[in-house]
Amino acid sequence: MKALLFGLFVLINTTIQCVGFTDTNIKSVCQHANINNDVACEQNKLSQFSLHEYQKITKWLENNSQDTDYSQLLEEIYYYYGLNLLLDNNNLDLDVIAQWEKIKHSKTLIDRVQPKLDDLYLKFGYISKIKGNDFIEETRNYKDMDLDERLEVSPYSESLLHEKIDDLWRDIMDYTSNSNIQTSSDDFLIIFANDLTTCYKNLISKHGKKYSLEERSEYFSILSDIEFLMLNNFKQSQLFAKQCIELDDSNKHCLDMIKLNGKLLSLKSRSNFDPLVIDRNVNLKWKNEFTKMINDQKGMNTFTKISDRVSDFYKNNKKSKFKKIYNYMPYQELLTIYKSIAEDLSTKNFNNQANNKKIKALLSSIRVKEIKSIKDLKTVLTSEHLQYIWHEKSPYICLNVIAYLINNEQFINDKFAIKIGDIYNLLNNEKVINIGNDKLDDFSYKIIQGVKKTFEERQMKERILREKQQQQQQEQFFKQFQGGGYEQFFQGGNFGGHRGQRHQAPPPEHSQFSKEKDYYKILNISPKASEKEVRKSFLNLIKKYHPDKLSNLSDDEKVKMEETVHNINEAYEVLYDEQKRRDYDRFRSI
């Protein structure tokens, strides 16, 4: 950029030295055009006019161009006017082209502007207008290039930008309808969204002057929606919405976006916790600030009404670009979740047992297809479901489901398909089982500690039961021994086939491991894989085989899929735990 500015500066000064007119002509024009600029008018420095003065002097000269004394001066003004527009840095390139294309007769000026003019033609896709040999050679294969290649060469071409936008929306619709987009880290979605943003920005900045206020306002509205719904950038979404309102203050959707983003940004700044990561963190301290924001009925109603209006706009507005893809967007659930939290926090019973109606709503929002009612929780909900909910949706939702389970007497009595050990292992693997109350809200801490207490109680009961069984076995042995059954007991195979043979100590007990299963192969990792690699491979496999994909399979295929998921979870549970992994490695070496 510095080199470009320096080049233009040299070009301006060189031109001043090479081309000039009598002071009388310039002074006369200044007087007629009502321009009071002593430096430009008195000292014959045509480069020193302001853009507004160039407009005035150009208009007067064009009206009097029949006077041959002024014809060459007019082309000189076109030249300087274009140079100043180029230096203005306000995306006035099309205006530069318009001014320089008016230069028809002065060969000196034409030679000076043509290289820069050809460069602008290339950037805007006006290939047929290019005259310089170097640029012609560069565009020789232009027609054979694909869309992206042409856009690299001509990033400001209006027709190419519209074509790219249409292609991107088609790609997004195809991708979202054929993929299970669940997180904000979806690389393809981010690429599509950023490409769309670039295209719309270039249309507004380079071609905006030809569009109506309503059209430009609509472009800013779309940019606001992309940032909110696809990228979840509240601040940028709000800025675009404000630019939308500046052009069209009757746009109600942009007004809603300003308010909604403002509330979320307020929450984020007060709590120093990003609401975006509710699907990545169990630290829900921000909920306390959320409570303050909506602690009165009016505040809650305002927030939920705005959320409802924005959701309805995306789902029902025929003009909305998001109408066909809204239900596939990862953050369409954000509005549902926030509204749900708002409704919860407005009641006195939020920290009590979650009720059936609430759980049904949560399960509905996460679209776990196999679970259609609360009754299905007993027979269908598995540890794989909980892991899916935790990682791909929100720990907040997952903890609400867990709250329902551990407060249900039937669950405590093992009437559910999922066991307390499964839940404990999930929380332990996510490293939240020992997090203190200083880092968690009361609800989350209470639920996690409830799981821990129930699991430890169950472990204690099982240990007592095992000890009791061992005691009974010992008592049976002594009864046999005292009853003369010594020979029979040893010859029965318990300690080997020979009388009096010393029993060889058994290898360490690893009954939970199987020689038939290679956990490293199951997770597709090497035995030297790091903890991070184990987790990454596990998450990728869980996404690949997540429960939503069971719906279109046959019964046999479902059984195989469920067995595969079970093996993946079993391998992860062992290899992600340092002690279990050491035990497993020793077991493999035996």
TrEMBL record:
<feature type="region of interest" description="Disordered">
    <location>
        <begin position="492"/>
        <end position="514"/>
    </location>
</feature>
<dbReference type="GO" id="GO:0034975">
    <property type="term" value="P:protein folding in endoplasmic reticulum"/>
</dbReference>
<keyword id="KW-0256">Endoplasmic reticulum</keyword>
<dbReference type="InterPro" id="IPR001623">
    <property type="entry name" value="DnaJ_domain"/>
</dbReference>
<dbReference type="Pfam" id="PF00226">
    <property type="entry name" value="DnaJ"/>
</dbReference>
<feature type="signal peptide">
    <location>
        <begin position="1"/>
        <end position="20"/>
    </location>
</feature>
<dbReference type="GO" id="GO:0051087">
    <property type="term" value="F:protein-folding chaperone binding"/>
</dbReference>
<feature type="domain" description="J">
    <location>
        <begin position="518"/>
        <end position="588"/>
    </location>
</feature>
<protein>
    <recommendedName>
        <fullName>J domain-containing protein</fullName>
    </recommendedName>
</protein>
<dbReference type="GO" id="GO:0051787">
    <property type="term" value="F:misfolded protein binding"/>
</dbReference>
<dbReference type="InterPro" id="IPR036869">
    <property type="entry name" value="J_dom_sf"/>
</dbReference>
<dbReference type="InterPro" id="IPR051727">
    <property type="entry name" value="DnaJ_C3_Co-chaperones"/>
</dbReference>
<dbReference type="GO" id="GO:0005783">
    <property type="term" value="C:endoplasmic reticulum"/>
</dbReference>
<keyword id="KW-0732">Signal</keyword>
